[in-house]
Amino acid sequence: MKKILSSGEKIKQLRTDIGLKQENLSNEAVSKSLISMIEQGKRSLTLQAAKVIAEGLNKYYKEVGEEVTPEYLMESELDQVKKEVRKNIEHLDKAIKSSRVEEELIRNTFDKVIELVDAWKLEGEKIELQILRGNFYYNNYQYKEALKDYLDVLDQSIKSRDYGQIASMYISIGTTYQMQKMMDSAIVHFVKASDIAIANNTANKNQVLAYSLYNQILCYKKMKRYDLILSHITIFKDIKWEEQLHKVFYNQVLLIEAVTYRELKNYEKAIKIFEKLKEEKQLDFKTQFLLYKNYALLFRDKGKIENALQCIQKAFDIKEFVDLNYTPALYLHQATCYSLLGEQDKVINLLENGLKLAEMVSKKHFAIDLRFAFVELYLEKKDYFNALIHAKEAEKSINENEVKSKLQDLYGYYIEIYNKLGEVERVNEFSIQMRRKNYFASVGM
């Protein structure tokens, strides 16, 4: 973090760094005693004095290819703080979006910058940082921490009656509940977001409505509520939001519609929508990638494995243009296709490549899915020792990343492995854990 200096401290540092005395910078307009008082903070720096002092410093600094401007000397401590905070916000935003971040370094930077904005009471910057930090926690599956930041921003926004921000925070809170499998709570918050935006006619009203409906569609997709998916897609198509992002959302909603028909085994309608999207000239890379991935699943469902592999290859061809988090799942789909073709050597190689990548990205659950794929592969090969190794590695990832939704699958694999190994006590142990998990889920705990 850059040290914040007063005008006098800057002058003194610049002067002493090159061995100058105060009299070296003085003239008839700016005396040595005035420079001394400015350096001690006893007098304010005027623009006239700043020009004289900068001119005196530049006699030496320009010789080494540097220049001191009066504006730099005049810059207040508050302006320096704001500039430093802005620089750090941009750096944090870029680092988080890269998907390759040192989590501890990011956390430490957030702590230092938030400490700085608290000291200078920069409320707007504090809210911006908390939203960004909430997004960071969200992307790293730390949903409780994300909710703390989102709820704090929501509270501040309610106090200031910033209805546009309130609506946006309801969206962020809803998506966090959605990732925690709390679909009912998520939908409630998405509806609140749209209600707030409509009631107060916020500037971001259409954007909020799009986000709200889009995420409700995602919730209903996860709940397999196909009727509600399709009805909300119909409503979404009527939204008027004249921005490029709306077109991106619109295409993604069409993709969900196609996936819904695929899952309903209405392949004719699914293919019609997939083909329509393929003809879209301005389709963004993310939607293209997901289009080919899901089209591959349709072909796999229909037993057309070669067609599925062709679609997967098309997705691989544009993987450099999409978030790195999407690629590990593609290796898994490709491995599944080759498994159906009986090419086990290719399967192992693809899973290994996918696993290496999955351990690099922020969305760690892909690594768990790939571990499970290894478990299934080794169970099929009756190599229970290696199946157990991958199950234990999956458990380690589940615990480290608190992905509790994967525990049910893990216990099932443990039961199958230990049953094959004849370890009855371990089978009973995981059977009990599975029953307990089912019971607590059924009573809402």
TrEMBL record:
Domain named HTH cro/C1-type is located at: 11-64
Record CDD domains:
HTH_XRE
Q: Which organism does this record belong to?
A: Alkaliphilus hydrothermalis
**The organism's taxonomic lineage, starting at the top:** Bacteria, Bacillati, Bacillota, Clostridia, Peptostreptococcales
- Which superkingdom? Bacteria
Q: Which SMART domains match?
A: HTH_XRE, TPR
Q: What InterPro entries does its record include?
A: Cro/C1-type_HTH (IPR001387), Lambda_DNA-bd_dom_sf (IPR010982), TPR-like_helical_dom_sf (IPR011990), TPR_rpt (IPR019734)
The name this protein goes by in its record: Tetratricopeptide (TPR) repeat protein
Looking up Pfam families in the UniProt record yields: HTH_3 (PF01381)
